Amino acid sequence: MSELQAEVQNSTQQISPLRQQLKEFWFYFSENKGAVVGLFFFLFIVLVAILADVISPHAPIEQYREFILIPPAWQEGGNWSFILGTDAVGRDMLSRLIHGSRYSLYTGCIVIAVTLTIGVSLGLSAGFFRGWWEVILMRIMDIILAVPSLLMALVLVAVLGPGLENAMIAISVTYLPHYVRLSRASAVAENARDYVTASRVAGAGKLRLMFITILPNCMAPLIVQATLSFSSAILDAAALGFLGMGAQPPTPEWGTMLAEAREFITSAWWVVTFPGLAILLTVLAINLMGDGLRDALDPKMKRS
User: Fold this and answer.
1) Which of 180, 194, 176, 177 minimizes the C-alpha distance to 127?
2) Contact (CB, 8 A) for 73 and 82
3) Domain that residue 126 falls in
4) Cβ–Cβ < 8 Å for 162, 246
5) Contact, 184 vs 159, CB < 8 A?
6) Contact criterion met (CB below 8 Å) for 192 and 184
7) ABC transmembrane type-1 domain: from which residue to which, for each copy (predicted)?
């Protein structure tokens, strides 16, 4: 019985510091009211994307030829079956916006996952091994940074072919240098600290030093960068879709919806306004959330 009590006490002692860290994180994060609003709006968008098949009133690609360019329901000539109106081929705008959230979040998640995984691995290796590997890798990153990101993405998509998957690959390549440089700088700073020296003296291997000893202490700036890059990935994917190089019709991606609605800017305001608002509000919410994460994770931003 005493052994069981000892195990319970040890597990409680392990949980308590984590709970305390979470409370401290939420305290500093919640001080930024804009970040809290952004977090809840982002969670709302995630919920909408998950339940898109359930809550959308119509199929996103279903065409109602007798209801072409119907205005929103509250305007004269509107129909409550199509609350936000229809587009030029009679597709429900609300249903397309709801399903479009999936593509935007999917793009952001894939881009961040790829750039974080590859960028952090390359950056840590550059900061840990140094020498010729660091020089070659960082010069390649400098070359990528020297080219405007949207221009490079357009060139890569032109080579790979238009499509959402190729657009995500192109955006990932343009974001890669930011994570490589950030993780490399953090690794160089952490590598000189006493706890890394102690781990090395204790016999820790290079991979263990990189990914278990150093990496956890470099995560705070990387998390903030990932949050801000998430919104930028959504914007860039929408820009490529608007230029016809991203998701292809009839995919209900917000940027592609804007591209299809260009000729109706003056005659049917809703087909342009609602996709634009969806991009604006989602990116704004993620940026506000990123500011809150910076305040909560950066020790310099915390008050004693």
Assistant:
1) 180
2) yes
3) 44-297
4) yes
5) no
6) no
7) 101-290
Number of folded domains that form the chain: 1
Residue 147: strand, helix, or coil: coil
Does any domain span residue 15? no
What's the token pair of residue 244? 């016809």
Closest residue by Cα to residue 83 from 68, 97, 93: 93
Structure letter (DSSP) for residue 162 = S
What are the tens digits of pLDDT across the range 267-286?
889 999 999 999 999 999 99
Tell me how far apart the alpha carbons of residues 171 and 147 are, in angstroms, rounded to a whole number: 13
Residue type at 295?
A: D
Token representation of residue 233: 């990935």
- In three-state secondary structure terms, 82 is strand
Residue type, 158: A
Q: Compute how many other C-beta atoms are within 10 angstroms of the C-beta atom of residue 27.
A: 11
Rounded Cα gap, residues 11 and 20, in angstroms? 15
Q: How far apart are CA 167 and CA 39, in angstroms?
A: 27
Cβ–Cβ under 8 Å, residues 92 and 58: yes
The C-alpha atoms of residue 215 and residue 187 are separated, in whole angstroms, by 8
CATH code: domain of residue 240: 1.10.3720.10
Supply φ then ψ for residue 92, to 5 degrees: -70, 125
Task: Give the residue from 58, 86, 117 showing the smallest Cα distance to 261.
Answer: 86
> Is 304 domain-assigned?
no
14 assigned to some structural domain: no
Q: Read off the pTM.
A: 0.84
Q: CA–CA separation, 256 vs 111, rounded Å?
A: 18
Read off the pLDDT of residues 223-258 as tens digits, 9 standing for 90 and up: 888 888 898 999 999 999 888 888 888 888 999 999
